[in-house]
Design goal:
The protein is built from four helices and seven strands; from the N terminus they run E-H-H-E-E-E-H-E-H-E-E. By secondary structure, the chain is α+β, with helices and mostly antiparallel strands. A seven-stranded mixed beta sheet has the order 1-2-3-4-5-7-6, sandwiched between helices. A hairpin with a 6-residue loop joins strand 3 and strand 4. The protein starts with a strand and ends in a 12-residue tail after the last strand.
């Protein structure tokens, strides 16, 4: 699998996956993805090594300025046929690497009944910090707010 920046030509496939994954809640439409790209978010797609098919996507919003950044994972979606193959973990790890490059905390919302996602986030250092009642619409499902504190990237430096 390879990760690449999300391009506008990838948006229709992302919308298609959204509709499959989130039918009871307002799945993102093309406008939402375009808006996120316009806002300068860090968005990626996952593709199989042998294909240009989009099998997953993820996005990280960055706000603030140098030394005081904050990030928020806005979306992670994986085609159901590719779930449980490490796609979501790979996408999440890439987003967290970007946040770590910025030494920024990371926030996200996740449905309270999405045990697989909650477990994934907890494995990557997230903790539940709040509850948003009726966050997802129109279903009215609740969401946990989860956070991971900033982590500095460890870099090998050559003494010279």
């Amino acid at each position: 699998m390879r990760l690449e920046p999300l391009h506008r030509k990838d948006i229709p496939r992302c919308v298609e996956i959204e509709k499959i994954l989130f039918p009871g809640d307002s799945p993102w439409n093309a406008y939402a993805f375009h808006s996120e790209l316009d806002a300068g978010g860090h968005y990626l797609v996952a593709r199989p090594d042998d294909s240009d098919e989009v099998i997953g996507y993820a996005g990280l919003a960055v706000v603030g300025r140098r030394g005081d950044y904050e990030t928020s994972i806005h979306t992670i979606g994986v085609d159901p046929g590719w779930q449980r193959n490490g796609v979501g973990t790979t996408l999440l790890t890439a987003l967290l690497t970007r946040a770590d490059d910025l030494v920024a905390p990371v926030f996200l919302e996740v449905r309270t009944d999405n045990d697989a996602a909650i477990t994934l986030y907890e494995r990557h250092g997230f903790e539940r910090v709040g509850l948003r009642k009726r966050y997802y619409q129109p279903s009215g499902a609740d969401a946990y707010t989860m956070a991971r504190p900033p982590r500095a990237q460890v870099r090998d430096e050559v003494a010279g």
